[in-house]
Amino acid sequence: MLERALTQQGRLRAVVLLGEPGIGKTCLLEELAIRAARRGQLVLEGSASELERELPFGVFVDALDEYVDALEPRRWSLAVGDESRAELAHVLPSIPPSPGTSAGLLGVERYRTHRAVRRLLEVVAATKPLLLLLDDLHWADSGSLEVVGALLRRPPGARVLMVLSLRPRQIPDRLSGALERAFRAGTASRVELGGLSPDEAGELLGGEVSRAVAVALCEETGGNPFYLQQLARSLQRRVAAVASTREMSLGEVDVPDAVVGALGEEFAVLDAGTRRALEGAAVAGDPFEPDVAAAAADRSEASIMEALDALLGQDLVRPTDLPRRFRFRHPLVRRAVYESAPAGWRLGAHERCAELLASQGASAAARAHHVEQAARYGDTAAIAILKQAGDSVAQRTPAGAARWFGAALRLLPDTAASAERVALLTARAGALAATGQFAGALSDLIESLRLLPADAVAQRVQLTTACAGLEQLLGRHQAAHARLISAVADLDQPASAQGAALMITLAADAFFRLEYEQSRTWGARAFEIARPLGDRPLTAAASGVLAVGAAFAAAVPEAERQCSAAAELVDTMPDEELALRLDAAVHLAGAEVYIDRFAEARAHAARSLSVARATGQGELLPMVIPALTTAMWAMGQLAEAAELLDGGIEAARLSGNDQALAWHLLNRGVNATVAGDLELGLATAREAVDLTRELVDSFVWTYAGVSLATVLMESGEHARAIELLVRHGGGEELSSIPAVWRTWWLDRLTCSLLAVERREAAARAGAAAAEIAEATGLRLPVVMAQRAAAAVALDSGDAAQAARLALASSVTAGELGMPIEAATSRALSGRALAVAGDHAGAVAALRRAADEFDACGARRGRGEAERELGRLGHRPYRRSRSGQPDGPGVAALTARELEVAHLIVDRKTNAEIAGALFLSQKTVESHIRNLFRKLDVNSRVEIARAVEHGERH
Questions:
Q1: Quick one: DSSP state of residue 208?
Q2: Is 826 domain-assigned?
Q3: pLDDT score at 950
Q4: Who's near 879: CB < 8 A, 6+ residues apart?
Q5: pLDDT recorded at residue 244
Q6: pLDDT digits (tens, 9 = 90+) for 140-151
Q7: 707: domain range?
Q8: Are 79 and 126 in contact (CB under 8 A)?
Q9: In terms of Cα–Cα distance, which of 600, 662, 683, 671 is closest to 640?
Q10: How far is residue 867's CA from residue 200's CA, in Å, rounded to a whole number?
Q11: What values do phi and psi take at 777, rounded to 5?
């Protein structure tokens, strides 16, 4: 099977070797590497080590670092791109950091690091197949496990085969889900290794023992190759079976007593100096370097090298492919040596390793393992190193950070200042929350609250809101609400900055619980308190959350006033000031989405994300992405919105935040359906509904249900869609959905009701949309009300009226900057004109609608318009994404391509363009290729000239 995997280039992307310790997994990997190399494949190998489980990305450093260091830097750096290269600098020590080339990274966005590793593997495998062998993954650090999981979920787009070895009873939870999904999808297969038969055991041992002895040993060891060879070694030495002079443990592994005794015998024959060198190597690591082993053993490097010759001769250690780096014969050998060394001596050995690494300039993370093992209770220097190690890895490997913060807390003396303990507790809480351990994070924050002095009011409020947020993620919504209410009541001065901050949180809590008027009330109270205080960020945050509450409660004039006031404050604040209350911009963007200000919402949400990344405020991501992608979707930027949502989905999966995951999935479902991928739309929307089953009558539950209903409508399941829409939307009038966007779903409901011939109900839904349009005075409700009325008119036989209403809807949507909605209404007008007998008008409307859909990447709408054209006897012809016939000229460019072109005129690099337009560099490169084709040019200089010339004439 493994031989076939080397030659096949099909769906299989990973093979998982499962077997108990000593069963032969590593030997099988070594044989596989030899055969792959003979076939001309590139082989890269990495392994995890039992005692160094939290060295960040250790498996991938072992596999990739030396190889990448030997590559010509410019060639591979250009191939992976600036953003990926900057991320890889945080993974591989051989890659120096490049200041200014990467935006900040939030802990929940560590998928960007995983994507960078995937891109590197694609580049490495571009010229010949790559076999990536990763051994002993059950010991891998959290960062490595997350990367492997990401590669299993989305394999590299190149000829890369991963072979992973694991102990079946020690598969990390962080990896098991990804493995099972890959097995089900057929992209990974498992190979379970068992013990050898007596004949195979005899073949393995060769002439070392008689067949009778081989059979006896096979029975005693269960055919485990390592155990067989170890006992055979013992027999060869003909040493009396005596236990080691020191107690020896093999950790979690249940090893036969005879094998433990045989290992002890093997060590017992070593002289004192060689034994001490071996013990120093066991402390130094696996693999280890002689200088670190010398420091651990407290011997000169020359004496260690001399001892190495003896250890190599006895096959206790083996050389690696890298000079001055050695490995133990087997991890069980290393564990036995380590455990048999005197416990007190080990403390000093770790301390000496830490001192050597510090003198060599090693990072805090590289030293933390030795510091943790050797530090004394109350050792302030050790505590500082452990905290520094945690801080350094918190964004990319938060599970490792939580370990280091926990180690620092264990060393912290009872006499330490409460502020120091609170700092470590809150740091660990953040790391735990980033990996979905919300209960542990909540416990740390509650302990922090207990330790705070009475006068630390601002910090108490901050921790209280953080606790409430975690309780909401744990599904304890009433407890979160009660905590916030109690905190307001406990304030000596509710009319204070702290009181306003709590009320802002209560306002947000209320609209997530569908209590829109309560949200508006709490927002108004917060605004009344904040405004006289002269605190601009706090006032902006209060104004923004009040705008959301007012918009959701259909108090449109108030929402518009508060949006304008909040925008004036936010837009005049530098990023440093805005970062003090970044939720001001987030709430502002959310409110703008609900009052027809899509361009403004997009700008404010994009800025929020940029500042969040720069300041590490990852907790806001679940609110930023929905606002940003909804604005993008409304403006016809489906591909950009999809890219952000895919990132948000990966981030939510990594953080274990099911509510954020559901929110991103439901948006992705609608986006995918409009883009023409109905299968993806159904899968993501259904997963969102499944995730929110325990959150009945919440904001996310409501939107998950109505979004799935929308996708089902497109698949023709109208009866099921109507049932879902009415149940999750709060009845036939969909009262649970905020009024402005309620009309969007009322229009969909109208069409589905007509499809099942429930005409009276359809008329009521259309009338409800019209009432909202009249009450709010906003254009989005007008667009939807007119379109719903047009659908009812067409169904009733008044085609001329339907055409007029649909065309009016299209014009209003175009003025609003909603091209997909404009195209949808125009297509309806085309169908109505065809029924009315205006053939030429119908063809013109449908062609224009098809072009508008195409310009946005809305393949489903384009396909439907083209089918209507086909029924009218007109063969549709493709136009460019701009709606203009393909060909050179600035007129052929889409709005986004024109934005890119203008930035090229301004001499911006791809990275700068990506940052300015909130795109990935890959998307920018795609736009530039389109510019070359449409403008018939071959360079960026020629793009600039063509744009300048075209806009002058």
A1: G
A2: yes
A3: 72
A4: 850, 851, 854, 885, 886
A5: 42
A6: 999 999 999 999
A7: 637-737
A8: yes
A9: 671
A10: 67
A11: 75, 10
User: Residue 555's domain is classified under what CATH number?
Assistant: 1.25.40.10
Task: Please give the structure tokens belonging to residue 405.
Answer: 């913060």
911 lies in the same domain as 828: no
Q: What is the pLDDT of residue 324?
A: 87
Model pLDDT, residue 240: 37
- CB within 8 A of 312, min separation 6: which ones? 318, 319, 326
Token pair of 44, please? Answer: 């890269």
Query: In the chain, which residues have pLDDT < 50?
Result: 101-103, 238-246, 878-888
Tell me what pLDDT residue 22 has: 87
User: Residues 921, 910: contact at Cβ < 8 Å?
Assistant: yes
d(CA 515, CA 184): 42
Residue type, 855: A
> 889: which 2 tokens?
């000229």
Q: How far apart are the first and last CA of the chain?
A: 66
Least Cα distance to 828 among 874, 858, 859, 793 occurs for 793
Distance of CA 911 to the CA centre of its chain: 21
DSSP string across 212-227: HHHHHHHHHHTT-HHH
Residue type, 170: Q
* 134 phi, psi to nearest 5 deg: -120, 110
Token pair recorded at residue 628:
């940003």
* 28 and 158 housed in the same domain: yes
Assign 631 to helix, strand or coil: helix
Do 667 and 583 fall within a single domain?
no
pLDDT, tens digit, 9 for 90 and up, residues 118-130: 999 988 988 889 9
Burial readout 630-654 (b: 16 or more C-beta within 10 A, e: otherwise): bbbbbbbbbbbbbbbbebbbbbbbb
Assess contact for 643 and 923: CB atoms under 8 A.
Answer: yes
pLDDT at 105: 64
Whose CA is closest to 488, among 440, 540, 537, 529?
Answer: 529
The domain total for the chain is: 6
Q: Tokens 């209320």 — which residue?
A: 510
Residue 936, pLDDT score? 75
Domain-embedded: residue 122? yes
CA-wise closest residue to 709 among 675, 760, 744: 744
- Which pLDDT belongs to residue 881? 42
d(CA 610, CA 725): 35
CA distance 523 to 515: 12
